């Protein structure tokens, strides 16, 4: 009797093991800066991917009639192009089924060739430099509007709404910062204002007194910074110390919940105008609010910036796998390219022939009382 019970237990264990081993594992890579000056944004992205993976596993998604388990393989690129290509190669060697990332244009663009060569689909949730999807790689997609839309909208706003007649431009010499600053400058000139200075710094700089002193003498109405919040915050402090009272503008890199903390008391209400490459309005706002609540509950932290776009990127990739009946890159890539009207938490996702999102939204923000305050959603 005892022997029979042992055999029954062993048989049950074997059956359970067989069920687990039969379950296909789908590995999704995520790359962002989890170290360095913008690690807070990289972690925000990673948590967006983690929440998506956990919810997909809880739903019990099937691909091609088989139960699958999703695994997140997270890599750190430190917002550095060389580290990014090493991280990309590591994911390729790990035979991931797809990649979400990178966060920065300067890391996404060089990494995209590695994924393209390996035939692995890549969706960037936040890279805005137009070059990313203009290299001809069939594996490259993004779920946010690009710098042509972002920088152009901000440039027109600077002249038409803020009534800026003299405008200074600073960029951090990264692919993102320089790209968005170039598009901003083009739009400002086209709208009839004057660029009184174009300066540059780096994405790791902390001292801007020399370039700001040069710009102060030119009395700009608006100062635009192409770069990230970790540089933009200290720059605002030094502008205040020099008595530069210009409006301060920037793209989504500075348009974060952290900017008021980084700028301290140097940021006056309404002084900063920035834009996020995405946004929701109307009925879509509820799905975004629901996501924010789930994110806060899971990580005990508020969304910094891009997490919902990462979440949508994971889900649209998995939707393509389900439609293709396969998680193999070569099989689901054509389905991913055909995506039209996928219901993301940040709005519908449809890709054009380049892999860019169609009709991408843009949200203009200012800051009041240390918090972001939406001005308008523009498409």
Automatic annotation (TrEMBL):
One Pfam match: Peripla_BP_6
Record's keyword annotation contains Signal: yes
Gene3D superfamilies per record: 3.40.50.2300
Keywords assigned by UniProt, alphabetized: Amino-acid transport, Signal, Transport
Annotated signal peptide: 1-22
Domain of life: Bacteria
Protein name: Branched chain amino acid ABC transporter substrate-binding protein
């Amino acid at each position: 009797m005892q022997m029979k019970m042992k055999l029954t237990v062993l048989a049950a264990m074997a059956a359970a093991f067989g069920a687990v081993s039969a379950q296909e594992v789908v590995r999704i890579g995520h790359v962002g800066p989890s170290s360095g000056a913008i690690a807070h944004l990289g972690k925000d992205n990673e948590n967006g991917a983690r929440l998506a993976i956990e919810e997909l596993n809880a739903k019990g998604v099937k691909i091609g009639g088989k139960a699958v388990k999703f695994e997140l393989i997270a890599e750190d690129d430190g917002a550095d192009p060389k580290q990014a290509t090493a991280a990309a190669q590591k994911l390729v060697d790990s035979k991931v089924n797809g990649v979400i990332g990178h966060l920065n244009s300067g890391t996404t663009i060089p990494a995209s060739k590695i994924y393209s060569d390996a035939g692995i689909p890549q969706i960037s949730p936040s890279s805005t430099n137009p070059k990313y999807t203009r290299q001809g790689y069939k594996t490259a997609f993004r779920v946010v509007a690009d710098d042509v839309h972002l920088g152009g909208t901000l440039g027109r706003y600077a002249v038409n709404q803020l009534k800026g007649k003299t405008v200074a431009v600073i960029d951090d010499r990264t692919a993102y910062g320089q790209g968005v600053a170039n598009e901003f400058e083009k739009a400002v000139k086209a709208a009839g204002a004057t660029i009184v200075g174009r300066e540059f710094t780096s994405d790791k700089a902390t001292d801007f007194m020399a370039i700001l002193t040069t710009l102060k003498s030119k009395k700009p109405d608006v100062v635009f910074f192409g770069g990230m919040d970790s540089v933009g915050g200290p720059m605002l402090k030094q502008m205040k110390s020099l008595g530069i009272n210009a409006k301060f503008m920037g793209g989504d890199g500075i348009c974060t919940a952290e900017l008021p903390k980084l700028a301290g008391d140097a940021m006056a209400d309404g002084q900063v105008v920035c834009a996020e490459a995405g946004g929701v309005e109307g009925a879509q706002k509820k799905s975004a609010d629901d996501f924010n609540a789930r994110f806060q509950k899971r990580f005990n932290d508020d969304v910094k910036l891009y997490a919902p776009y990462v979440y949508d990127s994971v889900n649209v990739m998995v939707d393509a796998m389900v439609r293709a009946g396969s998680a193999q890159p070569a099989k689901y890539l054509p389905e991913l390219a055909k995506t039209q009207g996928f219901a993301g938490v940040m709005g519908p996702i449809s890709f054009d022939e380049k892999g860019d999102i169609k009709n991408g939204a843009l949200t203009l923000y200012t800051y009041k009382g240390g918090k972001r305050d939406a001005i308008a959603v523009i498409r």
